[in-house]
Amino acid sequence: MLWLLLMMGSTTAFSVNYPKTFGSDWTDANRFVSEHHEEWKQEFDLFGVDARLAEAIVFPELIRYSMWKDEIERAAVNGLYISKGREGADFSIGRFQMKPSFAEEVEQAWNASSLAKEYGFSFNLADNNEARRSRVRRLSTEEGQCRYLAIFIRLQLQRLPQLQKVSQEERVRLLATAYNRSFSASWQSLRKMQHERHYHTDVIKTRSTRFFCYADIAASWFSAKVSRKNKK
Asked: Of 1, 99, 186, 192, which is most buried with the most CB atoms under 10 A?
């Protein structure tokens, strides 16, 4: 019975028609990726990261991105985070909805990895206004967010070598789960969390809010792109 339930949980992506479920939000997000793919790819290529994999990881964020909400949260981050750190404000900003605390984790892991020496740069991790202002400046541009995402992927691939041994779709699922749920989760935890439903598109969560699996959405978009590419 347990095996049957696990198998049912792993087929969620095939039981929901996500393009139909999210309608114009899916269409708009897909169009946005298409319009920016070439410029984003240049940033991902700098770190040897597959652009389609990277785009799939953040595609669910593009679906629920709200310009109005982002402007409010960006203002709070620019003010309170810079002066007080993550205790002052730690809102998600930008198209990829990255928090300053996420950027801090990425920077700390990068500086401690062999990649920093390989690429010849490191981040300023000082606990002061100048370092936090530079971090917010990077987070406030698509170029900066693409680089944070590429670095995140390289760090995860280095931290979890098992990712190189799974299928492309499974790699997308697990990296998307790490991005959405936990930067430092273990391999076992990621495999478990990849089926959990926490994602929603409501501005404010209510009793009627419908929850989805973040990894399912990312994998669904990625599979569609790979399938379309193979048909050409």
From this structure: 99
**DSSP code string of 125-154:** --SSHHHHHHHHHHHTSHHHHHHHHHHHHH
Residue 109 contacts residue 155 (beta carbons within 8 Å): yes
What letters, b where the CB count within 10 A reaches 16 and e where it falls short, cover 62-71? bbbbeeeebe
The token duo for 172 is 């997308």
pLDDT tens for 91-113 read 999 999 999 999 999 999 999 99
41-79: pLDDT as tens digits: 999 999 999 999 999 999 999 999 987 888 889 999 999
Contact yes or no for 49/150 (Cβ under 8 A): yes
193-216 pLDDT, tens digit per residue, is 999 999 999 988 999 999 999 999
> Helical H runs in the chain?
2-9, 12-15, 18-46, 51-64, 67-76, 82-84, 100-112, 114-119, 129-139, 142-159, 168-180, 187-193, 214-231
**Distance between CA atoms of residues 91 and 114, nearest Å:** 30
SS3 207: coil
CA 24 to chain CA mean position, Å: 21
Closest CA to 97 of 120, 74, 78: 74
Angle between helices 51-64 and 142-159 (to 10 degrees): 120
Q: How far is CA 26 from CA 17, 20, 63, 219, in A?
A: 11, 8, 6, 14
